[in-house]
UniProtKB/TrEMBL annotation:
This is Uncharacterized protein. InterPro entries: P-loop_NTPase. Residues 266-285 are annotated as: Disordered. It comes from Microbacterium suwonense. SUPFAM superfamilies: P-loop containing nucleoside triphosphate hydrolases.
Length: 285
């Protein structure tokens, strides 16, 4: 009954808004349907529960985000489009999850348009956040399997493999699917890991033990690249040599001149402060 009431409210909102429905409009139609007991008592009863749910979006704790038309438009002609939802996590997990669902649907509508004849990179900076529900995981799996069909390259960035432990419960369908997706990604780039991650990447990504040990000793800018059936050790740090460091050096303002020992009367014990490559000593006064 709830499903039928929602469909009826959506159909009415489409008609009344010239095919531009919003959650606010659907909520208004549901409220109207719930009062029409003389027309269809079962439909009116089915509209009550959905109207209470949508009221949170219109007047409740979720208001101001999803109930009206978007205030921005997706610029399909832009070379780069960034959707930053990080600030919305301050509003709670539910807001964050709904934001991810909306942006995923938005991206899906764009990249599935084969008539655009464009190739795109779809980059997920916090990959695990897009895997909080079974529906989003299945959508991402579809993007991977149909990447050639859509003309896209999927890039997912994880700080560590353990990030995926935040997806679902242990041994749940969601978590298993998340690790399956990570394992199915053909090209993998692994930067320095800690001891705890060594066993995880061996188990989840089938990385040889010798490579896992090597990953623990990588320097800044170095990474292990697995491209197809080949593996490489890559140094991508632009300041590996002295002349490159001088070319890209941007920390001059942080390097204070060394003025010799300084007496500090506010300190009760000796400590030290690092200033660039020189370390002046703070002594108790």
């Amino acid at each position: 009954m709830e499903h039928a009431a929602l469909l009826e409210a959506l159909d009415r909102c489409i008609v009344h808004t010239d095919d531009q429905p919003t959650l606010r409009g659907v909520f208004a139609e549901l409220t109207q349907i719930s009062t029409e007991t003389n027309k269809d008592r079962h439909l009116a009863h089915g509209a009550i529960q959905p109207s209470f749910v949508l009221r949170r979006f219109v007047n409740g704790d979720l208001s101001g985000l999803f109930e009206d038309h978007s205030t921005v438009r997706f610029d399909d002609d832009a070379p780069i489009v960034v959707v930053d939802t990080s600030e919305l996590f301050a509003r709670g997990d539910l807001v964050a999850q709904l934001s991810q669902i909306c942006t995923t649907a938005w991206n899906q509508a764009v990249i599935s348009d084969r008539n655009a004849h464009k190739t795109r990179y779809v980059i997920r900076e916090e990959g695990w956040r897009d895997m909080t529900s079974l529906a989003s995981l299945q959508m991402y799996q579809q993007w991977l399997k149909l990447s050639r069909h859509y003309g896209i390259s999927n890039i997912v960035i994880l700080h560590k493999m353990g990030d995926l432990d935040a997806v679902g419960e242990a041994d749940s369908q969601e978590r298993n699917l998340a690790y399956s997706i990570a394992g199915d990604i053909e090209n993998k780039f692994i930067f320095r890991i800690n001891q705890q991650e060594s066993a995880s990447i061996q188990q989840r990504l089938s990385v040889p033990p010798a490579h896992a040990d090597m990953a623990r000793q990588l320097r800044k800018g170095e990474f292990l690249a697995y491209v197809g059936q080949y593996s490489y050790l890559v140094d991508a740090f632009a300041t590996s040599t002295d002349w490159e460091y001088g070319l890209f050096k941007t920390d001059d303002a942080m390097e204070l001149p060394y003025l010799g020992p300084v007496n500090c009367s506010t300190s009760s014990h000796p400590t030290s402060m690092l200033s660039g490559r020189r370390t002046p000593t703070w002594t108790a006064g």
